[in-house]
Every structure is written in C-alpha cells, then in structure tokens.
C-alpha cells in the first residue's frame, strides 16, 4: 500500500505565497510521474503541474509563471511553490503520483489540502 500525504495549505491574502508538500510512503519500488491537481469550489478537478522522474515539467496555463513544481527523489516528495496567488486559485489541491509497486504501475492520490486566497 502507498500513501500520499499533503501539507502546506491554508489561508493567504491575494499576492501571497504558499508551498505545498506531498510525501509518498509505503511499498514503493520506484516513482514515475508526480504532480498536483486542484478542484475549485463547484468545479471539476483540473491539472496544475507535473514532473517526471527525468524530463521536462509541465504546467497548466493558469500556473505558468506563478507556480513551480519540484521533487526530491531521495525523500519521495513533490513540492508546489505558489506565488502571486489569486482568489481564483482557491481550491482543494491534490497530490497525484504514478508509483511502481509489486503489483505494477499504479496511480495514487493524496487526501487533499485546502488553499484559500482571500483578503
């Protein structure tokens, strides 16, 4: 079993910054892609950013220039640095990862962390 645990959400004023973290633990052989999604109130879940083990990171248009995704492979952890936050960034942010286990490559989600941008 694999667990993804997010942290770092909270309430921030417009223009502020937050850094989200997501640590993977459990029966992990290797981790492929790690990424972040979000679900704004009343809307569908949408991608934010992703980073492969090797290769180029990808960002949704709403995140480009403001958010930075990074990962620490030694710690099985992915981060999302969010700057210049806007009220429309308010959402539950979910960590997502493709993990190799004894059962093959499987997709896992964290429980979500709330980010609220408001004055």
Description:
The protein is mostly beta strands and 119 residues long. It is built from no helices and 11 strands. The protein is elongated. The termini are far apart.
User: How many beta strands in the DSSP annotation?
Assistant: 11
Which sequence of SSEs, written as H and E, runs from N to C? Answer: EEEEEEEEEEE
Helix amount: under 10%
- Helical stretch count? 0
Overall spatial form: elongated
Estimate the strand proportion.
Answer: over 45%
Secondary-structure content class: mainly beta
* Unreliable residue runs: none
* Rounded radius of gyration (Å): 14 Å
Major beta sheet, specifics? 7 strands, mixed
Distance linking N and C termini = 40 Å
Question: What is the arithmetic mean of pLDDT?
Answer: 95
Write a brief caption for the model.
By secondary structure, the protein is mainly β.
Topology:
Layout: E1 2-7, E2 10-12, E3 18-26, E4 30-39, E5 46-51, E6 58-59, E7 67-72, E8 77-82, E9 91-101, E10 104-109, E11 113-117
Parallel strand pairs: 2-11
Antiparallel strand pairs: 1-3, 3-8, 4-5, 4-9, 5-6, 7-8, 9-10, 9-11
Descriptive tags:
elongated, mainly beta, four-stranded antiparallel beta sheet, 119 residues
